[in-house]
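[step 3/7] inverse_fold.run input=structure_tokens len=96
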């Protein structure tokens, strides 16, 4: 977001409204008006979308951690349960 704000500031401040090139005077107001709102629109959209995405991803991670926690907390009263727990541990290490 900082990059977008810097880009917006650059477009507003560093692009001249008019430029003389030889005998021609170039009016940049239309170009500037078309470019400047874009970074601000992106920032606005990010501020709306990011919280939703972060909440969704956090819920996924919480569910994954809970599942792995249950798998790793099981009692090892038999060899099969011990092997299952070791496989769960390997899975958790590989996918974290």
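[step 3/7] decode complete -> sequence:
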């Amino acid at each position: 977001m900082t990059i977008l704000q810097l880009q917006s500031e650059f477009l507003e401040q560093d692009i001249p409204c008019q430029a003389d090139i030889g005998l021609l005077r170039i009016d940049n107001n239309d170009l500037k008006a078309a470019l400047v709102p874009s970074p601000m629109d992106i920032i606005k959209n990010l501020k709306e979308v990011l919280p939703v995405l972060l909440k969704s991803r956090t819920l996924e991670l919480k569910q994954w951690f809970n599942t792995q926690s249950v798998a790793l907390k099981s009692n090892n009263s038999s060899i099969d349960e011990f092997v299952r727990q070791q496989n769960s541990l390997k899975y958790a290490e590989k996918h974290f």
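[step 4/7] annotate
The chain is about 75% helix and 10% strand.
The two ends are 27 Å apart (CA to CA).
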